[in-house]
Design brief:
This protein has 22 helices and ten strands. By secondary structure, the protein is of the alpha/beta class. The strands form three sheets. Strands 7-6-8-5-9 form a five-stranded mixed β-sheet.
């Protein structure tokens, strides 16, 4: 019966696994997981389309610098917007300031290049509210040294970078007693409600004006310039020279005020980043690019599209985990040594942080569906392997001896006696993996695999609960649906005599 159920799942998968587009795009623009990067990426994609570059794809929300840069190196992305200070610190790990020419020299051996500046500096700074500024008399970063009691809520990237808090604390002699990591967009809410006193910001953030924040002066000149640039693959010049012309059109073209207005349209005006990109381009000399097609449907169409992609990720990774996990669980029953090694390895995979695993897979598999499937498959293994092993080992010795006494072969004993007897435990493991997968698959959006993580990530960045709910509610309902579907599947797979009675807890 279990083999029949697996066969049914296999037959259902091909239409779900069909690719969403017939061919890969010749040019892929990437962007990080924040509004300014989305707008810049979409603006470049629009100009490329205007110049006749066919099949341009914009992959937004690709996590932080490490993820999108690895995607660029592996060729999953051809170009993305970044900042000179970030390139110097995070990518090149330079202990000293680098000129643009030096950065180009160090990136060229990797097959990468940097454009001229886009036109604005979006550097780091620390900001406080007017109330905090007046209460403590804060004007400069040096003033923080006198107030170690201030509560700092800093982004995790800022906390981990030498050009972030570690270097800042060393330069200014800061000994703050309460320093906590917080998501960038959530920090503004914490700042406005008085839960923290200061946070790190980008100097083109639209929130600066809206919340009337006071930007502390960098009086000792710690922060380097963060001039926005395009980082791209050198082979793009040969593959599609019009893409380079599009990049050049968007260099020395966008100043701080224009970028801040574009950010505000997304964060406060409720515009999509595509609409904000069009508005940004309309302000440039020469006006907006040619009009693009209508938006891809409304909220319902977006939810259905994300749910469909989410289901693909969950089902394909779960099927792979079943096909590998059950044989591994069977193999583990052959000896204590094998059991220890297999279960330890499956348990170790479960402990690897999901974001770290996704980042490690990008150099090997690029971005998109494939690395997401591999990660979800690895996370699904432990419950299936462990429950298969425990279910088989829990079969009573007299029953196993009886199967052997009637002359059944080892294969027949496994298929006709042991697996059916262990099926309640095996199905429980599969069900656990499926439910966990539904939640974990939301992180696949960070590497361009789509799914219900897309609206959740965008909603967090934009502080829009409606967007978050567009991903969170369908994900919760999908988890309940999966739970119910496996309850029904139990009736087809588990022999009647081994099923728990109705209402049994």
């Amino acid at each position: 019966m279990m083999r029949r159920a697996l066969a049914v799942m296999v037959l259902l998968l091909p239409p779900l696994a069909a690719p969403s587009s017939p061919a890969a795009a010749p040019v892929t623009v990437g962007s990080k997981a924040f509004p300014e990067s989305w707008v810049l990426g979409e603006a470049l994609a629009a100009v490329m389309r205007e110049r006749g570059v066919s099949g341009v794809t914009h992959r937004s929300n690709l996590g932080g610098t490490e993820i999108v840069f690895q995607a660029l190196r592996t060729g999953s992305v051809d170009v993305y917007p970044d900042y000179t200070g970030t390139i110097q610190e995070v990518i090149l790990h330079s202990p000293r300031p680098l000129k643009l020419g030096e950065m180009r020299e160090q990136l060229a051996p990797q097959g990468l290049a940097i454009s001229d500046p886009i036109g604005f500096n979006d550097g780091y700074a620390l900001a406080v509210t007017d109330a905090v500024e007046k209460r403590y008399g804060l004007r400069t970063l040096s003033d923080l040294e006198r107030h170690p009691e201030l509560r700092l809520g800093l982004t995790h990237e800022f906390l981990g970078r030498q050009d972030g808090y570690p270097g800042l604390a060393q330069r200014y002699g800061l000994r703050m007693r309460d320093v906590r990591g917080i998501e960038h967009e959530l920090a503004y809410g914490a700042l406005a409600t008085g839960k923290i006193d200061a946070t790190d910001i980008y100097t083109t953030d639209a929130q600066i004006q809206r919340l009337h924040l006071h930007v502390l002066e960098d009086d000792r000149g710690f922060f380097p310039r963060y001039d926005a640039v395009w980082v791209y693959r050198l082979d793009l010049a040969k593959r599609e020279p019009r893409a380079l012309l599009a990049m050049r059109q968007l260099t020395h073209a966008i100043d701080e005020s224009a970028m801040m207005r574009a950010n505000a349209r997304v964060v406060f005006g409720g515009q999509s980043y595509a609409a904000a990109a069009d508005s940004l381009l309309a302000e440039l000399p020469g006006g907006a690019p040619a009009a693009r097609g209508a938006a891809r449907g409304g909220v319902l169409a977006s939810v259905l599209r994300n749910v469909t992609q989410h289901v693909k990720l969950v089902l394909l990774s779960l099927l792979a985990a079943i096909l590998i996990g059950i044989p591994l669980g069977i193999l583990a029953t052959h000896s204590e040594l094998l059991a220890g090694g297999i279960l330890s390895l499956a348990g170790l995979l479960q402990t690897v942080p999901s974001l770290a695993l996704l980042a490690m897979l990008i150099p090997l598999l690029g971005i998109g569906v494939l690395p997401a499937l591999v990660a979800l498959f690895l996370y699904s293994l432990l419950p299936i392997v462990r429950n298969t092993y425990v279910g088989l080992r829990s079969i009573s010795a007299p029953l196993a001896e009886a199967a052997d006494a009637i002359g059944l072969s080892g294969r027949a004993q496994l298929l006709k006696v042991r697996l059916p007897m262990a099926s309640p435990a095996i199905m429980a493991g599969i069900k656990t993996s499926a439910v966990i997968n539904v939640g974990t698959a939301t992180l696949a959006a960070l590497i361009g695999a789509g799914g219900l993580g897309e609206p959740i990530l965008s909603g967090i960045q934009l502080r829009r609960n409606g967007l978050i709910l567009q991903g969170a509610i369908p994900a919760a309902l999908l988890a309940l649906l999966v739970q119910g579907a496996f309850d029904l599947l139990d009736r087809a797979v588990i022999p009647r005599g081994l099923r728990l009675p109705a209402g049994h807890k």
